[in-house]
Write a structure and sequence with these properties.
With 114 residues, the chain is mainly β. It contains no helices and 11 strands.
């Protein structure tokens, strides 16, 4: 189970830090990441990190602004969102994939006002 938190309302140019804590399994050997879904749009992958080799992936629209990280001792992943724009408004979901299984959090709303 994943529990996300940290969303909120922020002005354009502002920052937020999303957190996602896992329970019932560990992040060891998992690929963990964040997706988002804006109103009327499909869910898209935003960022992910491999716990095996540390490699990261970011969708082009967030490169240089968002940073994914994890604290395996706390079984928590983070997404730092900087220089937010109204186009970043969406529900953000944390995700973990381990041994072919997908785990999803319930989502946290991020709203960026112009």
């Amino acid at each position: 189970q994943l529990q996300a938190s940290g969303g909120g309302l922020v002005q354009a140019g502002g920052s937020l830090r999303l957190s996602c804590r896992a329970s019932g399994f560990s992040f060891d050997n998992a690929i963990i990441g964040w997706f988002r879904q804006a109103p009327g749009k499909e869910r898209e992958g935003v960022a992910c990190i491999s716990q095996t080799d540390g490699r990261t992936y970011y969708v082009d629209s967030v490169k240089g602004r968002f940073t994914i990280s994890s604290d395996n001792a706390e079984n928590t992943e983070y997404l730092q969102l900087n220089n937010l724009t109204p186009e970043d408004t969406a529900v953000y979901y944390c995700n973990a994939m381990k041994y072919g299984l997908h785990y999803w959090g319930k989502g946290t709303q991020v709203t960026v006002s112009s």
